[in-house]
What we know:
Blueprint: E1 2-5, E2 11-14, H1 19-27, H2 33-38, E3 42-46, H3 52-63, H4 67-77, H5 90-100
Amino acid sequence: MYLLRSTTGTLYVGVTNDLTGRVLQHKRGAGSKFTAKYGINQLVYYEMTWDIRAAIAREKEIKGWRRSKKVALVESLNPNWRDLSEGWYAQELLRAEVILS
């Protein structure tokens, strides 16, 4: 389960079995229509489990929360709202820019 945010503060809660791959999709604008539309691509929080049912349940739980509770969750472990995936994809994103130009 993971939380992303945009530079304007819009939050997105998702679940995946491949966090690095899924976050890269979001960074490329291909993660989902919602995240692409609002530029939501900064990983600010995540939880890991081996049980997909638990991950889906946690995602649904957090999606039902008020924004203030989601903010408190992120700030409990990431008070500066740092992009936790910063530096993960330098080579992949650079390669994509070269191909597109």
